[in-house]
């Protein structure tokens, strides 16, 4: 099993974390914990994207210094580690000195290769995407990703990256099975490249946008936020150093990126072209998830339909939110989420499901067993479970687990251990110990998804104590 490097995209620090990013980072954490559970070596990285015009404008609108502004929001995203019980190994900020040096070194390498040139450009620019957009791609005169924002016309002299040079190489890369999940996103990327790749702007005039990484050798320009931000995937591993984590997890390991479905041209096309220019191995796989929507609209601060993860965690706990995101949000397609759906799932699946079964079994065990069960021997995980996770189908893995929970509940009803102990205490104890053992084996499967619940129930079983207030029902 190769060492696994897994990373999220870097959220832009122009607002508090919302449930859309929580989805991505929880999915990444599930995969990291699962691989560690299987005995693999993992380096899991996330962080914050802190440069660009949007951030400078937002800080100015609030009357704050830009550095102070990004420091505040980076701290808000760091809080997700404890709030969501995340197991990442590194948190990178694009304002970190080591990252800035790495971005500048990548620029120098691409420039030395002859892949960067300067030219005047005029076009429509979407501030939301920090990218130029073609008129043909507008929907109702707006960027399809930011329908509430008007594109602005910009004319300036910028540096460009010669992405067109790598069209054939990128196409060859995309035609490798498995480099993009799900498959239809790979087809989408292939179609995009086959239409012809254009060189893209990788800098902005510093007089118009000073908040960015300085272009090496040209103080009149700063790096375009995407060139800067994408470099995080290797700078967090210590690149441009070629030993240590970079060698272990990028050069010799398996690289896995998670991203939203609107990121295909950035992650699987632009970034791969930059890597090719620098002579660095391409990303092995990118998994694209759908959006969390509300009433059919993508959640956004501007629409006022954002669900904030901290509020859910404060009331229901981290594992309840982790469970919902993994089980009831589709791994690849858009999913409509409301607090009503969350509460229904919480009460049905956790309070009345897992919580109730655990309480029934552990009440019997605490009352009738003279000593706790012996820790069950570690066996191979069920094939249905591992196959689902190997395909990044978190929902299907949890459907299997909840099927096992339902089966165990039915077994209690069918065997009636609470009656058996009154007529045959020893046989009743044997049955209760059997139920506790089965519960332990089921709970093992929750390790990647609900780590706190996993530990709490296992500890209760081995202590022969009913856990208190596991998932209290909410009205």
Task: Give a short overview.
The chain is of the alpha/beta class and 475 residues long. The chain has helices spanning 19-37, 53-61, 66-78, 80-83, 97-112, 167-174, 183-194, 225-230, 232-235, 244-251, 264-278, 309-316, 318-327, 339-368, 383-390, 394-415, 417-423, 425-444, 451-463, and strands at residues 4-7, 42-48, 90-93, 116-126, 131-133, 152-161, 180-181, 200-201, 203-205, 214-215, 218-223, 254-260, 285-289, 292-294, 297-298, 335-336. It has a six-stranded parallel beta sheet, with helices on both faces. Strands 5-4-6-8 form a four-stranded antiparallel beta sheet.
Write a concise keyword list for the protein shown above.
single chain, 475 residues, alpha/beta, Rossmann fold, 2 domains, six-stranded parallel β-sheet, four-stranded antiparallel β-sheet, elongated
How would you describe this structure to a colleague?
There is one protein chain. Strand 14 and strand 15 form a beta hairpin. Strands 3-2-1-12-13-7 form a six-stranded parallel beta sheet, sandwiched between helices. A four-stranded antiparallel beta sheet has the order 5-4-6-8. The chain contains 19 helices and 16 strands. The protein has two domains: 4-289, Rossmann fold (3-Layer(aba) Sandwich), CATH 3.40.50; 338-463, Isoleucyl-tRNA Synthetase, Domain 1. Helix 6 runs antiparallel to helix 7 (183-194) and helix 6 (167-174) packs across helix 11 (264-278). Helix content is 49%, strand content 15%. The chain has 475 residues and is α/β, with parallel strands linked by helices. The chain is elongated, with a radius of gyration of 25 Å. The model has no long low-confidence stretch (mean pLDDT 94).
């Amino acid at each position: 099993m190769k060492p696994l490097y897994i990373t999220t995209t870097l959220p832009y620090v122009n607002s508090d974390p919302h449930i859309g990013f929580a989805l991505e980072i929880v999915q990444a954490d599930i995969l990291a914990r699962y691989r560690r559970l299987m005995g693999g070596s993992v380096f899991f990285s996330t962080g914050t994207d802190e440069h660009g015009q949007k951030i400078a404008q937002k800080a100015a609108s609030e009357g704050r210094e830009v550095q102070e502004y990004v420091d505040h929001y980076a701290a808000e995203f760091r809080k997700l580690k404890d709030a969501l019980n995340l197991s990442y190994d590194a948190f990178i900020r694009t304002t970190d000195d080591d990252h800035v040096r790495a971005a500048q070194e990548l620029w120098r390498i691409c420039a030395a290769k002859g892949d960067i040139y300067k030219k005047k450009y005029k076009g429509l620019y979407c501030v939301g995407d920090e990218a130029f957009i073609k008129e043909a791609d507008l929907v109702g005169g707006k960027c399809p990703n930011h329908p509430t924002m008007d594109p602005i016309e910009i004319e300036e002299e910028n540096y460009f990256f010669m992405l067109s040079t790598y069209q054939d190489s990128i196409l060859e890369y995309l035609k490798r099975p498995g480099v993009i999940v799900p498959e239809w996103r790979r087809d989408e990327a292939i179609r995009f490249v086959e239409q012809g790749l254009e060189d893209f702007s990788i800098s902005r005039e510093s007089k118009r946008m000073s908040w960015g990484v300085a272009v090496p050798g040209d103080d009149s320009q700063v790096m375009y936020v995407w060139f800067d931000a994408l470099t995080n995937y290797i700078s967090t591993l210590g690149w441009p150093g070629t030993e240590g984590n970079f060698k272990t997890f990028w050069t010799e390991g398996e690289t896995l990126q998670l991203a939203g479905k609107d990121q295909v041209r950035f992650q699987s096309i632009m970034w791969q072209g930059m890597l090719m220019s620098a002579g660095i191995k391409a990303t092995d796989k990118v998994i694209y998830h759908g959006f969390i929507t509300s009433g059919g609209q993508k959640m956004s601060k501007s629409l006022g339909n954002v669900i904030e993860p901290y509020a859910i965690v404060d009331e229901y706990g981290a594992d309840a939110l982790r469970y919902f995101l993994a089980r009831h949000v589709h791994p690849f397609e858009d999913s409509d989420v409301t607090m009503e759906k969350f509460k229904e799932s919480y009460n049905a699946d956790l309070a009345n499901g897992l919580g109730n079964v655990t309480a029934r079994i552990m009440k019997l065990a605490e009352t009738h067993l003279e000593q706790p069960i012996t820790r069950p021997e570690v066996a191979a995980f069920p094939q249905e479970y591992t196959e689902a996770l190997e395909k990044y189908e978190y929902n299907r893995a949890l459907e299997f687990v909840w099927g096992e929970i339902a089966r165990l509940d039915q077994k209690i009803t069918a065997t009636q251990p609470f009656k058996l102990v009154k007529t045959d205490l020893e046989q009743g104890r044997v049955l209760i110990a059997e139920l506790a053992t089965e519960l332990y084996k089921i709970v093992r499967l929750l390790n990647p998804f609900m780590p706190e619940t996993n530990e709490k129930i296992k500890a209760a079983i081995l202590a022969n104590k009913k856990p208190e207030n596991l998932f209290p029902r909410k009205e």
